[in-house]
C-alpha cells in the first residue's frame, strides 16, 4: 500500500467521527483507533508482511540458558490479566490518586483499575488478597484481552 494513500486515509479518519478503522489488503494490515476524550490523540498501528520489511540480520541464537535461569524469569506472584480489550486507567479521574501502587496491600474485591471499552468504564477488582509486586501497564494505554496488568503476591 502506498504511503501517500495511508497518510490520506489517516487524515480523513482524524477529521471524521469514526473512532476505529481496520483495513486489510493482502498481507498488509492497518488499524487506526482514536483514544478517548480523556487522552485526545490518535493511535496508529500497522502490520507489514515479512517480505516487505527490512532484511533481518541472522536469526537469534537459540536459548541455551540453564533451567534455573529460566525459572527466575517467571513472576513471583499471581498475574492479574485484562478480562477485556480497552484502555487502562490507573485512577478514577486524571486528578485522582491511583487505585493501587507497588508495595500496597490489597484485599479481595478492591478496585485495581478501570478499563474503558466502548465508552463504558469497567472497574477491575482483585480476586485475591495480597501485595502489589508490579504494575505492568502505563496509564491511558490500550490493553488486549488476557494481557498481564499486575503481579500480586498472595498473603
CATH architecture annotation of the largest domain: Beta Barrel
What sequence of helices (H) and strands (E) makes up the elements? HEEEHEEEEEEEE
Strand portion: 35-45%
- For the biggest β-sheet, the strand order reads 4-11-9-6
Low-confidence stretches: 37-45, 50-55, 68-72
Give the biggest beta sheet.
Answer: 4 strands, antiparallel
Radius of gyration computed on alpha carbons: 20 Å
Could you describe the 3D structure shown?
With 155 residues, this protein is mostly beta strands. It folds into two domains: 3-47, no CATH class; 76-154, OB fold (Dihydrolipoamide Acetyltransferase, E2P) (Beta Barrel). Helix content is 12%, strand content 37%. The chain has helices spanning 3-15, 67-72; strands at residues 20-25, 28-34, 42-47, 78-81, 86-89, 105-106, 111-117, 120-125, 130-135, 141-143, 148-154. Strands 4-11-9-6 form a four-stranded antiparallel β-sheet, with no helix packed on it. It is elongated, with a radius of gyration of 20 Å. The chain starts with a helix and ends with a strand.
Amino acid at each position: 500500500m502506498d504511503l501517500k494513500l495511508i497518510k490520506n486515509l489517516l487524515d480523513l479518519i482524524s477529521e471524521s467521527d469514526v473512532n476505529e478503522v481496520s483495513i486489510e489488503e493482502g498481507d498488509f494490515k492497518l488499524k487506526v483507533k482514536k483514544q478517548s476524550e480523556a487522552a485526545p490523540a490518535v493511535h496508529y498501528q500497522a502490520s507489514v508482511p515479512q517480505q516487505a520489511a527490512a532484511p533481518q540480520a541472522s536469526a537469534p541464537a537459540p536459548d541455551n540458558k540453564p533451567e534455573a535461569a529460566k525459572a527466575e524469569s517467571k513472576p513471583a506472584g499471581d498475574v492479574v490479566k485484562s478480562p477485556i480489550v480497552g484502555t487502562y486507567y490507573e485512577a478514577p479521574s486524571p486528578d485522582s490518586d491511583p487505585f493501587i501502587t507497588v508495595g500496597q496491600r490489597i484485599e479481595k474485591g478492591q478496585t485495581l483499575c478501570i478499563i474503558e471499552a466502548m465508552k463504558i468504564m469497567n472497574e477491575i477488582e482483585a480476586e485475591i488478597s495480597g501485595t502489589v509486586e508490579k504494575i505492568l501497564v502505563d496509564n491511558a494505554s490500550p490493553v488486549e484481552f488476557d494481557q498481564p496488568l499486575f503481579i500480586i503476591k498472595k498473603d
